[in-house]
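Backbone-to-sequence.
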């Protein structure tokens, strides 16, 4: 709970009452490796705070998967657009490793958002940061070379090579697995 509190407070200061209410809505849950937590077509019911484990969000089009996001310890997880809009997801959320979470429901989070202005502001600021990161990632995908994408990923998240299978990292970068393997062997970060 301390890690969650610190994370939230870094985004926007919460009142003691808001934090007391906020910490009361989270329940611990565990999931095994390779479990689908949310499938395309389902509405995301939960917001997760990752205690440990690695998850990925991906889209499936015909026989091709596109990894959209990875989540891991000390971050939120879930299909955020489906959760916030309460509409069917276009994405899957799966555990890549056994994972432990704190989890809350849409109804509980929405009740607190309406009750505490500081929580509404914290959520707004979080969404602004997500939007900025998404736009930055779009530029990377659209104009960066394979090597630039690879270097950017390793600069931003150097630990990711040990956490996520390389085939999913290649998908995330929008490059084929062969190119990813070549980059792994040749690119050195200074």
């Amino acid at each position: 709970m301390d890690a969650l509190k610190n994370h939230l407070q870094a985004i926007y200061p919460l009142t003691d009452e808001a934090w007391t209410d906020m910490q009361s809505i989270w329940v611990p849950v565990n999931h095994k490796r390779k479990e689908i937590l949310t499938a395309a077509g389902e509405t995301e019911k939960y917001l997760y705070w990752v205690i440990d484990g690695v998850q990925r969000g991906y889209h499936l089009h015909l026989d091709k998967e596109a990894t959209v996001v990875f989540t891991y310890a000390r971050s939120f997880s879930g299909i955020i657009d489906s959760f916030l809009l309460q509409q069917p997801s276009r994405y899957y959320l799966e555990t890549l490793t056994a994972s432990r979470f704190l989890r809350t429901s849409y109804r509980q989070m929405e009740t607190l958002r309406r009750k505490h202005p500081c929580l509404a502001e914290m959520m707004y600021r979080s969404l602004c940061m997500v939007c900025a990161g998404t736009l930055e990632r779009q530029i990377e995908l659209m104009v960066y070379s394979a090597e630039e994408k690879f270097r950017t990923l390793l600069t931003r998240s150097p630990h990711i090579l040990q956490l996520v299978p390389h085939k999913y990292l290649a998908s995330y970068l929008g490059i084929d697995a062969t190119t990813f393997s070549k980059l792994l062997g040749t690119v050195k970060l200074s």
